[in-house]
Write a structure and sequence with these properties.
Layout lengths: L2 E3 L7 E9 L10 E6 L10 E6 L4 E11 L14 E3 L7 H13 L4 H8 L2 H4 L4 E9 L13 H12 L7 E2 H7 L6 H9 L2 E9 L18 H11 L7 E7 L5 H14 L3 E5 L6 H11 L5 E4 L5 H12 L5 E4 L13 E7 L16 H12 L2 E6 L4 H8 L5 E5 L10 E6 H6 L11 H12 L3 E5 L8 E3 L19 E4 L7 E4 L6 E3 L12 E3 L3 H11 L9 E4 L7 H13 L4 E4 L12 E6 L13 H13 L10 E6 L5 H7 L3 H15 L6 E9 L2 H20 L11 E13 L2 E10 L2 H13 L9 E5 L6
Parallel strand pairs: 10-15, 10-16, 11-13, 11-14, 12-13, 14-15, 17-27, 18-25, 18-26, 24-25, 26-27
Antiparallel strand pairs: 1-6, 2-3, 2-5, 4-5, 4-6, 7-8, 7-9, 19-23, 20-21, 21-22, 28-30, 28-31, 29-30
Helix pairs in contact: 1-2, 1-11, 7-8, 17-18
């Protein structure tokens, strides 16, 4: 960390700074106060600084969140700021205010919140190089002009011809545009003071461009025009929230692009969030193709460290006209007053929820950022979250826009739900098959006709259950550190042919050759994407693994380059079949896909989570929508052991509104979100007794808040559930107990959480996880 050091800590303070240190310090939610000495008086809100912390005065990084000229504290006890991080760009004031909101709403120390906004590559200054910049210096007297050598005179003419926005210009770039063979003429001008040099840190990184897609529809549909004009009317008129419900293939992305164009025409920046890294190549290619004269900054964790720093710096310097990225792109350091529109695509997706502190939801943080920026925000989905649907149809706080039909030339695919038990009865052998006869024959027909296939199974690995087949023994291979079964992964380079992994703590070990209890040969049961891939290769010899067939899951996709390559190959038609997890289920637009297969629609339907039906409907409906995106008819085959499940039946009929109506009726009757607001507190400890004791102590303290005469009235409608073991009672050697807080609205929940926080009942740390508005309860 390069800092400007304060060598005179005893000098008189010119101001006082409240600093949020990058530590889990929750006792001071408004930051710690430090003195700013005369030598550092340029420090401002949003700067990253170094300050002494604790009794040992350990130099610690932090962010200035407020500056004042006076303080109520005794100045002799106030420590002094040590220095400023010169390599870190100043955070815009709106981001600092956003951090305050996240810290309060999600019960997280503000220092941790601010630290999460800044990528590690930016903090470490990765990819930064120091460059010499050249600009015009003192003007040359008229009498001296004839005596100036021609090359030097040419350099001055070249510099003067550049617009002020393009100056100063990098030294070697000036050599290039002036057509020089060396830097000697520029050196001579520097000596005479006719040009001047400055130094600037510039981030450089090799960048792999997206495949450019400049295609635009010949005409928009009436519904698209209606939505575009309705949202465009609110541009430049302050904050407003819009929900775009459009069936798959209805042209939502084209609506986004037209609204981005309106935003750019106003001289503003547009921010577009997508839930998965896998969606950035195709979306980025369309944005770059449609806006060739504007800069698109791409922000997500799949980039290299240097690339991430480069793209972040582009946004921070105000040079990005469009910002595209996954969840963390909501923290893009776009200068204040520059954001004109924020778009959240696939707003329903659970990937927008951060699973570590601060446990924020990207969609909800985006809404708050739009409020701070005073601009509209558009949330789009074919299967909106019930929270957004409730806000649009019941509370009426969102403006609802609809696209009920696919664009011309595309029809919603026919969806066939098949009972997998009945399918298996048609098999004449006793082998395990993951593809039923209906799906298998449909794959064969589609490949013979030159079409492409997408197969979804939301489980990676080869087998999810390893057990002894001997009924008297009954041994099952569980993780040694978690209360879950382990998953078998194929790995051809290993002598045993594979390894066993826990998908929660990520512990890995070799598969035992025999049952450790009785010595019988072990059996592997269950299913995963690797097992599907193996069966496909056996049944369809024309599919060559890695050439015409590819598996897309977090095991096979190592980074953004893998995503880009896979999707480009699929788009060109080189790949005929993709099999993968939920990353292939949404947002992808490939006209060649004629068949979509859901290997098992039941992977999440029976989980002990009130959102299980919602997630099942969304996943089946979204992946079904990948088919039929051309004049060729599309078909989706859904294999399930529960064909009469309402979520699956309604998804097959593309009936989102019917599903939302039924599900919201059930939620309202049970007093669950979106009709209430929830916070889930998880207590973690390696000692089971201490874990239970801590959970009971927390529940007792929270109950005291509800029954205390001073606080009872505001919290009369709050319900507490627990303490109780979590559905997965132990992860990574830590036992887990949970307490759920259910309030009638967000304001009441926040008041209660704040009261509990101020009494020391709640704190974010290794022993306690606070999840406000949880999307998963496992």
């Amino acid at each position: 960390m390069a800092v400007t050091q304060n060598l005179f800590p005893s000098e008189v303070a010119v101001a006082f700074a409240r600093v949020a240190v990058e530590r889990a310090v929750d006792r001071y939610p408004e930051g710690l106060t430090y003195a700013i000495p005369k030598s550092l008086e340029g420090i401002a809100e949003g700067d990253r600084v170094l300050v002494p912390l604790g009794k040992g005065n350990a130099p610690t990084a932090g962010y200035v969140i407020d500056i004042s000229t006076e303080t109520s504290l005794a100045t002799q006890h106030i420590k002094t700021v040590l220095g400023r991080d010169e390599s870190a760009a100043r955070l815009p004031a709106q981001l600092v205010e956003l951090a305050r909101w996240i810290s309060g709403y999600y019960i997280t120390p503000i220092g941790m919140t601010l630290a999460s906004m800044l990528p590690a590559a930016v903090k470490k200054n990765i990819g930064s190089v120091r460059k010499t910049m050249i600009d015009l210096g003192d003007p040359l007297p008229l009498d001296d002009q004839p005596s100036l050598p021609p090359k030097q005179r040419h350099v001055l003419t070249t510099l003067a011809s550049l617009s002020p926005e393009l100056r100063p210009v990098e030294l070697h770039r000036l050599v290039e545009i002036a057509g020089l063979q060396s830097i000697s003429p520029i050196k001579a001008l520097l000596k005479r003071g006719l040009v001047e040099a400055s130094h600037r840190s510039v981030v450089e990184a090799a960048w792999t461009e997206h495949a450019i897609d400049a295609r635009a529809p010949e005409a928009l549909t009436h519904d698209q025009i209606t939505v575009i004009e309705a949202v465009a009317e609110t541009l430049g008129r302050g904050f407003s929230t819009h929900l775009l419900y459009g069936v798959t293939g209805s042209g939502k992305t084209e609506v986004y692009i037209r609204l981005i164009q309106r935003t750019l025409d106003m001289g503003k920046t547009a921010v577009l969030l997508v839930p998965e890294i896998s969606l950035t190549p195709q979306t980025g290619g369309r944005l770059i193709g449609r806006f060739p004269h504007h800069r698109v900054a791409v922000l997500h964790s799949g980039l290299t460290a240097a690339q991430r720093h480069q793209q972040w710096a582009m946004a921070a310097e105000g040079n990005a006209h469009i910002v595209l990225g996954a969840r963390s792109a909501v923290f893009a350091p776009v200068p204040d007053d520059r954001i004109g529109l924020i778009i959240v695509d696939e707003e329903h997706d659970g990937s927008y929820k951060q699973d570590q502190a601060p446990r924020y939801h990207g969609r909800d943080v985006a809404i708050r950022r739009a409020q701070l920026a005073g601009c509209p925000i558009l949330l789009g989905s074919a299967t909106p979250s019930l929270e957004s649907w409730h806000n649009a149809t019941v509370r009426k706080t969102f403006h609802l826009h609809t696209l009920r039909h696919r664009v011309p030339g595309m029809k919603l695919p026919k969806v066939q739900v098949v009972d997998f038990r009945e399918q298996m009865k048609e098999r004449k052998d006793r082998h395990v098959h993951l593809l039923g006869p209906a799906l298998e024959s449909a794959i064969g027909r589609t490949l013979d006709q030159g079409g492409q296939v997408l197969l979804l199974l939301n489980r990676r690995g080869y087998a999810s259950y390893i057990a002894c087949p001997s009924s008297p023994c009954g041994w099952v291979m569980n993780c040694n550190h978690c209360d879950v079964t382990t998953v078998y992964h194929l790995h051809r380079k290993l002598k045993a042919g594979g390894y066993v992994q826990c998908h929660h703590c990520l512990n890995e070990q070799m598969l035992p050759p025999v049952c450790p209890q009785c010595g019988s040969k072990l059996s592997t049961f269950g299913l995963g994407t690797q097992r599907v891939e193996e069966e496909l290769a056996r049944k369809f010899p024309q599919l060559v693994e890695g050439q015409t067939m590819l598996r897309m899951d977090s095991d096979s996709m190592g980074g953004s380059r893998d995503f880009h390559s896979a999707l480009e190959r699929f788009g060109r038609g080189d790949l005929k079949l993709l099999v993968g997890t939920q990353m292939i289920a949404k947002g992808l637009d490939f006209p060649g896909v004629r068949l979509v297969g859901v290997i098992n629609a039941d992977t999440s339907i029976n989980l002990p989570d009130f959102r299980a039906s919602e997630r099942t409907f969304q996943l089946v409906n979204q992946v079904a929508g990948r088919a039929g995106r051309s004049a060729d008819p599309g078909l989706t085959i859904v294999q399930t052991f529960n064909p009469q499940t309402p979520a699956i039946q309604l998804a097959a009929r593309h009936d989102y509104e019917g599903f939302a109506t039924a599900e919201m009726h059930d939620r309202e009757g049970c007093g669950l979100p979106p009709f209430t607001r929830m916070s889930r507190i998880v207590i973690r400890d390696e000692d089971h007794v201490q874990c239970v004791t801590a959970a009971n102590r927390l529940a007792k303290g929270l109950n005291a808040l509800l029954t205390d005469d001073a606080t009872r009235k505001p919290f009369a409608d709050i319900r507490l559930r627990g303490p109780a073991p979590c559905p997965i009672a132990r992860i990574a050697d830590k036992h887990r107990q949970q307490v759920e807080i259910i309030a009638p609205n967000a304001a009441t929940l926040q008041k209660f959480l704040t009261a509990a926080r101020s009494q020391g009942l709640l704190h974010s740390g290794a022993d306690m996880a606070i999840d406000v508005d949880p999307v998963a309860l496992m």
